[in-house]
Amino acid sequence: MPEFSAPSRRGILFGTAAVSAGALITGCTSNEPEKKDSAAPANAPVADGAPGKAVTIGFAGPQADHGWLNAINDNAKQRAKKYSDVTLEITEGSNDTAAQIGQVQTLINKKVDVLVILPADGKALTQVGLQAMKAGIPVINLDRIFASPQAYRCWIGGDNYGMGLNAGNYIGEQLKDKPDAKVVELAGVDNLELTKQRTQGFDDALKNYPNIRKVARQAADFTVESGQAKMAQLLQAQSDFDALWNHDDDQGVGALRAIAQAGRKDFIMVGGAGAKSAMDAIKADNSVLKATVLYPPTMAASAIDIARAVAQGKGVGGMAEMEIPASITLYSAVVTKDNVAQYLPTGFI
Amino acid sequence: MTQPASAARQDAPNLVKTPPQQEPKGSGPAFGLRLDLRNLSLLGVLAALIVVGGFTKPDEFLAISNLQLVLTQASIIGVVTVGMTFVITSGGIDLSVGAMVALASVWATTLATQEYGFAGILFTAIVVGVGCGLVNGVLIAYGGLVPFIATIAMLASARGLALQITDGKTQIVTVDSVLDLGVKDAYVLGIPPLVLIFAAVVVIGWLVLNRTTFGRRTFAVGGNPEAARLAGIDVRRQRLYLYVLSGLCCGIAAFMLIVLAGSGQNTNGNLYELDAIAAAIIGGTLLSGGRGTVVGSVLGVLIFTTITNIFALNNLETAVQQIAKGAIIVVAVLVQHHTLRRRGQT
């Protein structure tokens, strides 16, 4: 989780989140609080693991029918358990917009102190976010963003564009000395905006490497079955290419299966999301999969941290601001054989 | 290609208005000609697609490896479609096929099952498929539920159960003997084992539908259930068997999917119900029952798979693929109808 080694803008943002998260997990702020205090105003309390005002957090997420979403729910639940002062009111996940609106309204009626919402569809749930904010309940918007900043107090989520960008740059560095290199893209669900952002980031990164050309792109459905089917087609269509960027590690299980079935070893593959199976394969280094770009489900644990801090009126450790920031974008780190040991604990099943 | 050349006699007669007692022994010349034309027009569509594929991507499309790929990809949905053809021929519908494939695949790939290796996985997949089909059949035949309602309830609950079993996680198969069936070494004379299973299901399905009492009863129930009952057919038991048959096909398909994808996931079999129904209808099976053709369904599946293959080889965007797929479905059906209308046989 700690992201100190690669200080970029996002790295700094996520790094600060990680600092506070780390402090919260271990509750070890007593070791070095003086350094921060010199910069922060004396009246800015910082969230830590020590029990504070009792807080009820309402959590509404989509149906966990996918490894990553399942990990989101797990992360939120596990994190809430760590705090003796937090009660988590969790609703049954739903991919139906109307159903999720109803669930959030129920949580509003229950008068929870703060809401964490991962909407099935960010735009469609904006109204109910506004409703909660108007009722005086701060909303922590997780990942899929609401259409209006008025609908949330803080947004925390992954960086889809950055995922594509970092995947593209990693592949670019691997292939930079190869003239006329070819890459193939196995995208996720094409009618999701996040898929377009991942592709845009990837394409923008490839512009830095004029020797590389994207020769094919097909979309799958984030499932193992679709990953296998679409990859089998791509392998048939492209008899020769140098690198593959696959948007999602779940469909990557299927893609790797298709690659093994076709007996192909002539390219490198970069995955996305950070599933444990992908990290295991990277560590074992016995397949074409050489890296995966993170979209960490730990953001759900951070959302619980933020929700608690907001409800208790506290700020973030490691930052001078008195308040929790309005938005936090995670960093899409590239996990390779060199650093996989560090990230393996965050890999989701 | 798996379809036999002698398509002329592959279908039992249309019994919509014919009491079963007067059922002809085989296909009469008129029926033979009609159904022959229907399948010929489908073959024409398939041939046209092959020309397009061969023209746009000659090296990739016409390769043996691509033929193997297309047939492999057609085989799983193909097996489901054979079961669906029986159900629709009897005047029913099975909307739960995708969910049954999902449930059977996740149940068969749970850790406990994997301990028993190949046989454990195969057995569990088939038992779960048959079990779900049995529930469907009992609800419809003896509970009096409309097939649409009973199978949509099964769709919801089987998907829910699959989600609960997996907890949203992908269950990766570690049994080598199962995985090995999907790789090139297992090909028999260049034919992937999954394609052989598909071919076997098609041949058996065709024989059962067109050459057995069971098949004749299926047509009779679909054509006119009341007449079938008067003729001494136990309509309810026949319906029960048909949904069990569909479940059995889903169990087999689930096993094939495990071989291909190397895992069980609750999202497996997504939208199979629509693909299978579409393939059966394009193939000439009548949604209102009484007429059904296994060979037509197989052609329908092959047309779908070939389209998908050509699209992927030409690197078409998802949106364009969907639009074109819809258009080709319409064209395929129009060509059929036009061919028949010109002969005055619709």
Automatic annotation (TrEMBL), chain A:
One term under GO cellular component: cell envelope
Keyword Transmembrane in annotation: no
Subcellular location: Cell envelope
Gene Ontology molecular-function annotations: carbohydrate binding
Annotated Pfam families: Peripla_BP_4
Keywords: Signal
All copies of domain Periplasmic binding protein, residue ranges: 57-314
Chief location of this protein within or outside the cell: other
PANTHER family (alphabetical): D-ALLOSE-BINDING PERIPLASMIC PROTEIN-RELATED
Family of the protein in this entry: Belongs to the bacterial solute-binding protein 2 family.
Listed name of the protein: Substrate-binding domain-containing protein
Organism listed in the record: Streptomyces qinzhouensis
TrEMBL record, chain B:
Membrane topology: Multi-pass membrane protein
Transmembrane segments: 37-55, 67-88, 95-112, 118-139, 146-166, 186-209, 240-263, 294-313
Keywords, sorted A to Z: Cell membrane, Membrane, Transmembrane, Transmembrane helix
Location in the cell: Cell membrane
Primary location class: membrane
Keyword Plastid found: no
Gene Ontology CC terms: plasma membrane
Gene Ontology terms, MF aspect: transmembrane transporter activity
CDD domains per record: TM_PBP1_transp_AraH_like
Record region (Disordered): 1-28
Residues in coiled coil: none
Pfam families: BPD_transp_2
PANTHER family tied to this protein: ABC TRANSPORTER PERMEASE PROTEIN YPHD-RELATED-RELATED, RIBOSE IMPORT PERMEASE PROTEIN RBSC
Name of the molecule in the record: ABC transporter permease
Organism: Streptomyces qinzhouensis
